[in-house]
Amino acid sequence: MNKMKRTGLLLLGALATLAPNLAAQSSEWPPTADHITLRLWPGAAPGARANPPAEADTTTAKDNLIAGRPLVRLGNVSVPTLTLYQARNTGARPVPAVVVFPGGGYSILAIDLEGTEVCDWLTVKGVTCVLLKYRVPGSGPYPKSVEALEDAQRAMGVVRQHAGQWGIDPQRIGVLGFSAGGHLAAAISTHFDQRLYAPVDEADKLSCRPDFAVVVYPGYLALAEENFAPNPEIKPTSNTPTTFIVQAEDDPVHVENAVVYFLALKNAKVSAELHIYAQGGHGYGLRRTALPVTAWPEAVETWLHTIRILP
């Protein structure tokens, strides 16, 4: 066997060995078969519509790129699901978990940019990630519609129900949301005392309060038409979980959303951390650019150690 042929065979063998790991780390949508995916509701979701349009990627060739790459804009979601991304290289269990809420203005879900790519980051850090595909369009913000918040409440209960099976610490389960999903993270942080729907099983008897929250470039938390007054439906109390907030000053969705929510948390005596950057706009997810705001995941990692979610 000549040297070139032998080298080629060795390379193929190495790729074959790596293939399962590469598949496990894939941020593609739909998720690969090695991820557990559960329907969120055992039957139809509350208030389910008859004959809804088919779920589909609504991205077109004219849509903008983020950091030079396209994204999946998932629309017409009528059957919400949870997809599990297990923490990697954790050693001792149980581990913390984060339920991720992609953004999209409650019209679509940026399911890879603000979903699967987030889970790829968290799992490497030793955090199990559960991606919530919640109902859109027309599912929020609460109380305009209750659907997304119902899905978020139900998701927290289901994750706690499966905590033992999935190697999760039920007292270290947080939420992380972007844009509309950031609003949803704040909404469930302030609406956890009572379910918005009739309980359907044992999961709904468990707490849906997050133990911590990460809110990234949120919307709907300050009312632009009312001189950026706080959203009266998002009222932090002393029992609202500790929260990390990040946004850019030039965000067209308005940086006041982050600032107003931070002040509301402070007034409620809730531990919170606020990061405001001069530039960055909106909708960058975890994709790195030359702008400092896109280093926000590193600040979140430090914060998770500070609040002792990570060791």
Which structural category fits the helices and strands?
alpha/beta
Average pLDDT, all residues: 91
Spatial extent as radius of gyration: 20 Å
The best one-word shape is globular
* Intertermini distance: 51 Å
In oligomeric terms, what are we looking at? single chain
Unreliable parts = 1-25
Strand content: 15-25%
**N-to-C series of helices and strands:** HEEEEEEHEHHEHEEEEHEH
Q: Give the strand line-up of the largest sheet.
A: 1-4-7-5-8-9-12-13
Largest sheet: 8 strands, mixed
Q: Can you describe what's shown?
A:
It is a single chain. The chain has 311 residues and is α/β, with parallel strands linked by helices. Helix content is 28%, strand content 20%. The protein has helices spanning 3-24, 112-124, 147-161, 163-166, 180-190, 256-267, 296-306; strands at residues 37-39, 56-57, 73-75, 81-85, 95-101, 108-110, 128-133, 168-178, 212-216, 222-223, 229-230, 242-248, 272-277. Strands 1-4-7-5-8-9-12-13 form an eight-stranded mixed sheet, with helices on both faces. A three-stranded antiparallel sheet has the order 2-3-6. Helix 3 crosses helix 5. The protein is globular, with a radius of gyration of 20 Å. Residues 1-25 have low confidence and may be disordered.
Short description:
This protein is of the alpha/beta class and 311 residues long. Helix content is 28%, strand content 20%. The longest helix has 22 residues, at 3-24.
